Known about the structure:
By secondary structure, this protein is of the alpha/beta class. It is about 35% helix and about 15% strand. It has four helices and five strands.
Amino acid sequence: xxxxxxxxxxxxxxxxxxxxxxxxxxxxxxxxxxxxxxxxxxxxxxxxxxxxxxxxxxxxxxxxxxxxxxxxxxxxxxxxxxxxxxxxxxxxxxxxxxxxxxxxxxxxxxxxxxxxxxxxx
Length: 121
């Protein structure tokens, strides 16, 4: 059985609480040593651009920049949907450190034959 985790996130900063929950789930996996991938689609692709994942979703919630930094420090990766990213005319040369542009085929290649636990937000 694989210990990989994939978190699919389609929501961006229009719903910071959903973004926070997705990052907490991904961070929990990554900090436990699981290979972890966040697949960013729709508005979530903007989170792969520096300076977008800012603020705090609620009183008592951890700040988003802290979650992003911890996720990257734990080895977490991002795969950013190219169709969604290009539709928003974002700059592919301006991505956060562990993000790369890639669609469903690279996601399935990363998952491999052993599978992965997945979550969707």
